[in-house]
Specification:
Blueprint: H1 9-25, H2 34-48, H3 51-69
Helix pairs in contact: 1-2, 2-3
């Protein structure tokens, strides 16, 4: 990312990881329901991660949650 972007990929992913780790530590993740878990992760990542990587990770987790919800 430093050669072709703005060099913030590491800090962006770190922010997302810290958010998820904090939610896990506070027992705020629905670990017994993968579809809901992925949807929640997608929502949180779009809030705490900036740039295109945040949007892409949010789309990935949200779509995965939706597919699981559909039984796919």
């Amino acid at each position: 990312d430093a050669k072709v972007g703005d060099g913030d990929t590491g800090s962006t992913f770190a922010a997302g990881a810290r958010e998820i780790a904090d939610l896990l530590h506070r027992q705020r993740l629905p670990l017994n329901n993968l579809a809901t878990l992925f949807a929640l992760i997608g929502e949180r990542l779009t809030v705490v991660m900036g740039g295109s990587s945040g949007v892409l990770m949010s789309i990935f987790f949200t779509a995965a949650g939706q597919k699981l919800e559909q039984g796919a």
